[in-house]
Design goal:
Aspartate Aminotransferase, domain 1; 4 helices
Length: 148
Amino acid sequence: MRGRWYVGINVGGGSSNSRRTRDPGVASGLVVNPEDVRTIALSLAEATEAGHHGRPSFRVRGKIFATLWTPQRLNVITGEDEIVAAVADAPEVCSAFLWGGRPAAVQVDLPQATRELVESLIVEAWARMAPRAVRRAHLQRRPDGGRL
């Protein structure tokens, strides 16, 4: 993924709920389920989970950065450039979610996605919404003292 903020941020660790894909058309790696999404999102500084029109959403300081649209679909709110890049890089997994005729989020097909892809999108979206002080505090929690 092409992004600014997620570079150097690693939420780390896999979930015991992850499973290997059996579809030879999907890149090798761990496939992601809703519990994995929760683990990734809630590991980020000040991230919370709250309902959004009956769906789980993930927020930082009240701003939504991702929504589990269905158990198989995740909407990740990134910038338009990141949406275009995600769709171009993984068209079998990612599609543009349009709102008002414009790309508003990357919609990820979780059964086809790898943990690496989902993690990079979620971290990018969180970093877009998180204030600078929150991003810095998150990086300082890392053992290597990562930088923005």
